[in-house]
Task: inverse folding
């Protein structure tokens, strides 16, 4: 059974333009995704597609001008605002993208210790720092004294000691050297092998494929395909959605083939399929309604032409 389920999630933000005209920007629409215990689901897609908004919606840390609809359940129970607050940082842990999540007025060792739920906090903090190659003197530093890579490892440490059942890692590897990055990815795999559910949010497909069980491809605020990691091979023959194939073929090792156009702005989403304006397979039918997610070849796809 899924430990975390997101059903028909939509998120919009209220903004004001010149003349105090109010508009709504739809940054996530009709999004469905499940997380299984013991599984790593990598959510991949271009920057600005709304991946971080998904993480913040699950945890209930969106700003006050956000409107949210849909249902999110954790262990079979709906994640109400009160329950989000109760499980946040305890049963559902976040490795945030921004290092600004660190308290600037608190030494980083003490910050990590506040997340320890079982055992001795000091021992747990020092052990995780050692695993992530952070010297013991780092625990006495403040965030402004850390390099970018050290700050990211500190954020990862906080999640690692929490004992959470679900870990959401939002772009956790930028700024890490290759050795530490590989070790961090291995730790996520270790968590999953111990029964934790991991959502890895990233634009780096290559890194995700090293550890992920499934890949969820994100485009313009929704998931267009969920596929097994092993489907991302060769020229993408096993991949289902046209955007997923284009994303795969755009990698340097896969001929570096670009696609025309750009991802639509949240304030100017096209009618129908969000990818249709850039898709070589698009027909007039694609412009009528956004396709529903459907089962196809042991995966899920949001495309009427996928085979």
Result:
């Amino acid at each position: 059974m899924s430990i975390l389920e997101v059903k028909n999630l939509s998120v919009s933000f209220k903004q004001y333009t010149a003349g105090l005209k109010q508009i709504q920007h739809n940054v996530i629409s009709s999004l469905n995704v499940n997380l299984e215990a013991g599984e790593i689901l990598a959510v991949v897609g271009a920057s600005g597609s709304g991946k971080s908004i998904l993480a913040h919606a699950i945890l209930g840390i969106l700003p006050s001008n956000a409107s949210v609809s849909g249902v999110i359940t954790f262990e079979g129970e709906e994640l109400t605002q009160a329950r989000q607050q109760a499980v946040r940082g305890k049963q559902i842990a976040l490795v945030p993208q921004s290092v600004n999540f660190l308290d600037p007025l608190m030494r980083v060792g003490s910050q990590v210790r506040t997340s320890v739920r079982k055992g001795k906090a000091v021992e747990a903090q020092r052990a995780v720092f050692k695993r992530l190659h952070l010297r013991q003197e780092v625990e006495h530093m403040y965030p402004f004294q850390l390099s970018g890579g050290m700050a990211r490892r500190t954020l990862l440490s906080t999640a690692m000691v929490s004992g959470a059942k679900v870990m959401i890692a939002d772009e956790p590897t930028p700024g890490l050297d290759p050795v530490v990055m590989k070790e961090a990815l291995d730790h996520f795999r270790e968590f999953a092998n111990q029964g934790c559910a991991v959502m890895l949010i990233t634009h780096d497909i290559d890194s995700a494929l090293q550890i992920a069980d499934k890949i969820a491809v994100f485009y313009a605020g929704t998931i267009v395909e969920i596929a097994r990691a092993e489907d991302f091979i060769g020229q993408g023959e096993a991949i289902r959605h046209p955007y997923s194939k284009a994303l795969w073929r755009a990698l340097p090792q896969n001929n570096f083939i670009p696609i025309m156009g750009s991802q639509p702005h949240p304030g100017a989403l096209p009618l129908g399929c969000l990818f249709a304006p850039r898709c070589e397979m698009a027909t007039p039918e694609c412009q009528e309604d956004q396709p529903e997610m459907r089962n196809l070849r042991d995966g899920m796809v949001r495309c009427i032409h996928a085979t």
The chain has one domain: 2-91+164-301. The radius of gyration is 20 Å.
